[in-house]
Amino acid sequence: MSILDEIKRYKHSLFDHNDKSKSKSICIVGVGGLGTTAADMIVREGFKSIILIDDDIIELSNLQRQVLYDERDIGKFKVDIAKQKLLNINSSVKIKTHQTKITQDNIHLITSTLVLDCCDNIDTRFIINKFCYEENIPWVYTTVAGDHGFAKIITPESACLRCFYKNPKEAETSQNIGILNTAVHLASSIQVTLAFQYLNNKEYDNSLISFDIWNPKITKIKVKKNPNCKICGR
């Protein structure tokens, strides 16, 4: 099937309950800029089941990039408002929420076919990485800061986050350098497309995708599994 045929198929796939891939569940960890944008795309595409995990409340500064919220939502919990707004888009979707921060003690809250990493915390990402490897769950690592970021789908067969993330203490985040809202949309689009490709058993790019929307540029970096990795090394 050509790319054009694939696009035509998705053009008419909104709320298509005959598509078996839509019955697969997606867990979104972090319902901020990446998480709200990803969730919006997913429910509009007709997926039937999602899990939202976040412990934050909505602040005025969030409205610059977190697309499901507005001024009336300030001070309320993100997972509650996100669920409400998403059901207004697609009332048939099943949405489970957890008003908490992911830790090693509650990581079992992830009970989905695939995980989208939409958090802004490297420690949380490493917890997701270990759990998903042990439970054989694919996940899409995504990070964005300033005008650039990275995305990669990670499976038990591929290099895991520990294989290529060497200096976590030096990581840039939206908290320490800010964020351009258009960069969030690009990052989320790449992330969700990788998820769609995987869930539909289509060929997907296994590279670490680096992007810069200001210049603009997308680079693919081949990442090999580290045989000495403490998580996935053999």
Protein described:
The chain has 234 residues and is an alpha/beta fold. The chain has one domain: Rossmann fold (3-Layer(aba) Sandwich). Helix content is 32%, strand content 18%. Strands 3-2-1-4-5-6-7-8 form an eight-stranded mixed beta sheet, with helices on both faces. The mean pLDDT is 90.
Can you give me a brief rundown of this structure?
It is built from 7 helices and 8 strands.
Shape: globular
Strand order of the largest sheet: 3-2-1-4-5-6-7-8
List low-confidence stretches.
none
Quantity of strands, as a count: 8
Helix content: 25-40%
Q: Give the biggest sheet.
A: 8 strands, mixed
Estimate what percentage of residues fall within beta strands: 15-25%
CATH fold-type name: Rossmann fold
CATH architecture: 3-Layer(aba) Sandwich
The helix-strand sequence is HEHEHEEHEEHHHEE
| Number of structural domains | 1
Which structural class is indicated by helix and strand composition?
alpha/beta
Task: Let me know the CATH homologous superfamily.
Answer: NAD(P)-binding Rossmann-like Domain
* The first-level CATH class name: Alpha Beta
What is the average of the pLDDT values?
90
Spatial gap, N to C terminus:
36 Å
Radius of gyration: 17 Å
Please tally the helical runs, counting DSSP H or I stretches of 4 or more residues.
7
